[in-house]
Amino acid sequence: MSDFSIQEMLAMQRTLQEKYKDKWEAIRPEAGKHKLLWMVGEIGEVVDIVKKNGDVNKDLRKHLVEEMADVLMYYNDVLLCYGISEEELKEAYTTKFERNMKRW
User: What is the pTM of this model?
Assistant: First the structure.
């Protein structure tokens, strides 16, 4: 199984945005806050699955994974809106990881 990279997700999201450019809000910094709000809504749906059902069993797993994919799609829209590259994200993530490794 190969890795599914942020670069691949961003490319897929760009393709989706291009296809619906006449129907959806343009990807630009001003749209970032709207994409964040939509993402929070999707996170709420993930939370509801777990909150209402407790353990995520085999039947709920597919629904949970689909909602997590929705979260990632909006997350990638936010990255695109603000022009955050895979390299920038990796650097910030790595720095944060290293800081957290020394935290406690």
Answer: 0.88
CA dihedral for 19, 71, 74, 45, sign (positive or negative)? positive
* Tokens read off for 25: 């809000």
How far apart are the C-alpha atoms of 28 and 14, rounded to whole Å? 12
The whole-angstrom separation of Cα 74 and Cα 22 is: 18
Amino acid at site 75: Y
pLDDT tens for each residue of 12-56: 999 999 999 999 999 999 999 999 999 999 999 999 998 888 777
Q: Is the CA virtual torsion 93, 89, 18, 3 positive or negative?
A: negative
Could you give the CA distance from residue 93 to residue 99 in angstroms, rounded to a whole number? 10
